[in-house]
Amino acid sequence: MAHIVDSLTHPFGFVGFNPTARPGDVDYGLIFTSGNDLGFSNGAGPKANNPTQVQRLDTVVGAILRFDPRSPSVTGGAKGLGDYTIPKGNVFAADGDPKTLGEIYAYGFRNAHRISWDRNDGTMFASGIGMNHIEEINIVRNGENYGWMKREGYFDNGVTRPGVNPGQLFALPAEILEGRQKDGFTYPVTIYDHRDGQAITGGFAYYGRIPALRGKFVFGDITRGRVFVADVAAMKKADDGVPRTVAPVEEVQIFVRDAQGNRIYTSFRELVEKTNGATLPRADLHISISRDGELLLTSGQDGMVRVLVPEGASSSTR
Fold first, then answer.
1. With pLDDT > 90 as the criterion, what percentage of the chain qualifies?
2. Which domain holds residue 30?
3. What is the pTM of this model?
4. Which of 109, 122, 124, 264 lies at a C-alpha separation of 20 to 30 Å from 89?
């Protein structure tokens, strides 16, 4: 359980640096941006519902990019689509294919909504918003393909089958699901389906002051405002090349204190609706992390920052 305390405001969308990188590290000074499929999975564009549209390396659609923000005129390196430098360490910068975009770090995402890194060992996580059924968290590595639109979670997307509703998912063949046969895709380490939420928000490996959450990856659902956790060690263990292996997800119970100090169990969505004095169509939950490693929960619906603190802490400590 975690105690939540109110406070201020929050931006959203990911463009940033790997905060674990130090001078001399391969990521140091490089910018990461997360991408989406630009609506192709929602029926937009001339190649809508085409699973190959986001399985290409000559477009940034559905890709996570890594690049040096300095101009090639400064670095002497290769130019990207913009006036920035393509890092030599990017797998696709050295694949020998002139049509490949070297700034692509990883691809095959519907919407890699947020990216974060484990501050203990630098593991890179991406929270991926799904289409009709599955929300997922991936461990991201240079050059790997995360499957969209051919895959959603560890399922075969019906869009790959002629005459099938693109919203349908099918079980993978047993030899692929069990990892005996490789299909070229990297699968999520944690998932939940649309019975439990509708759009995953970003999360963080947590090592802060709340004992019950230490060693957990804390994330949530944007729409319903539910706060979830998965064990970080279990997530890394699930990164084993076997699609069906995923870490279990648990929900965090949060509470506030009333004027008399009594514990009042609540949810993030209830807090936002109470502030607004109205029922809302979505909680608009986003999670950030402070410099000292504590978690901030925010909503664009009410412009507040709410801080998760240990059970015995009071708002006066934040």
1. 76
2. 2-317
3. 0.91
4. 109
